[in-house]
Amino acid sequence: MQIEEVKSTGKEQRVATHSHIRGLGLKPEGTAEAVAAGFVGQETAREAAGIVVDLIKAKRFAGRAVLIAGAPGSGKSAIAYAISQELGPRVPFCPMTGSEVYSSEVKKTEVLMENFRRAISLRVKETKEVYEGEVTEITPEETENPLGGYGKTISHVVVGLKTAKGTKQLRLDPSIYESLLKEKVSVGDVIYIEANTGSVKRVGRSDAFATEYDLEADEYVPLPKGDVHKKREVIQDVTLHDLDVANAKPQGGQDIVSMMSQLMKPRKTEITDKMRQEINKAVNKYIEQGTAELVPGVLFIDEVHMLDIECFTYLNRALESNISPIVVLASNRGICTIRGTEDLRAPHGIPRDLLDRMLIVRTAPYTQSETQIILDIRAKTEGLKVAQDALEYAAEVGVKSSLRYAIQLLTPANVMAQIHGRDEIHKEDMLETGDLFFDAKKSVAIVQATESLFL
Ligand SMILES: Nc1ncnc2c1ncn2[C@@H]1O[C@H](COP(=O)(O)OP(=O)(O)OP(=O)(O)O)[C@@H](O)[C@H]1O
Ligand SMILES: [Mg+2]
């Protein structure tokens, strides 16, 4: 199994709907402040989520599941997002939606499995012997091609490295010359070369060159301290899914045909169960040896009622495994039919046996004043100016129809205000936009009243 040079396959998160939320907003002793970290009200649910975070951090919660249940727009997804913020970037957080499992190409359980493995990472700590310093020279030395013919080949490369303490000249294998070229290393860069594997990492450009150009995206790093040749602790976090992908990559040649076939092959089908078992075995060995540590993260499945009975059975089994993340589920359904069954009805559309194993957190509806504070925070993050009467009216709308509808009206209302030559949203802008964009309740009422006009 290879761990080195594993590229991260983490999903890009673009959670603009929750960008005002920076955490759960709890006091050190775990109680929720009324308004903190962008979160308003919903104290009980936030405190419960805080305990979940503590358990995850203490690694005492693997293989458990939490269900966040509550009305639409009551902040379930926001709580899940806040949990990920609290855990920090080193603990994997994999968000997905229940309906993601339905694909014509990939099996449902395969999608679930992949996301399970995205939510568990392996922290590998290694002390490595490295050569580190600022590059003072790169000189490839050439010889006649031993196989005859014209052209010359590189027999070795001389690299000069400088640290605060001294300089060293290394005579290195030609394969390292290739890595140097690949990493685009030039004189003045700070690099390190691993002694055992010969892999080269470019750390950044040395401070001494910081004033070279005015505009540059390069990262400047100080001249390394200590000797050129030293031991260095390297910590790497890779998810199990990263390992799957890295090991499934077709090891084709460099010619055009095999490169093309690598492009055409869908990655997903290449990861086999057998390969995963091999990886698990290797992972377990690393853990036993103490060179690696398992970091169970969070798998968040939103709209969990979209899963069907087959998926629920799989979930039940996957939670039993000794390498399982914490699963957080969210649903806004009451009692409904479990997908994939004829007429089996259950709370949240989740089978009773699975529901029994879960901790359930409930979100409560918001009061008008809470709604107003949320709308105010939201307007500020979107950079909108809202007059007081408009804000009050928006809060009223939020309570009457839904918080999400009120939030969504803000941006078009701003456009409306601009049309009227203002940079502040007034109540009449809110009223006018409300006439243009219907909320769900109004729309339903219209459909019911004019049923004969629809097909
Ligand atoms: N307590 C809160 N404080 C601040 N913002 C909130 C709060 N609750 C919800 N929001 C914001 O309101 C919007 C709707 O909330 P969210 O998407 O979390 O609802 P939900 O419970 O997941 O609804 P659904 O069941 O429809 O998925 C989001 O933009 C969210 O960030
Ligand atoms: Mg949601």
Automatic annotation (TrEMBL):
Gene Ontology biological-process annotations: chromatin organization; DNA repair
Subcellular location: Nucleus
Segments forming domain AAA+ ATPase: 62-365
GO CC list: Ino80 complex; Swr1 complex
Keywords for this protein: Activator, ATP-binding, Chromatin regulator, DNA damage, DNA repair, Helicase, Hydrolase, Nucleotide-binding, Nucleus, Transcription, Transcription regulation
Protein name according to UniProt: RuvB-like helicase
Catalytic activity: ATP + H2O = ADP + phosphate + H(+)
Record-level Gene Ontology MF annotations: ATP binding; ATP hydrolysis activity; DNA helicase activity
EC number of the protein: 3.6.4.12
Superkingdom in the source lineage: Eukaryota
Similarity field: Belongs to the RuvB family.
Function: DNA helicase participates in several chromatin remodeling complexes, including the SWR1 and the INO80 complexes.
Gene source species: Linderina pennispora
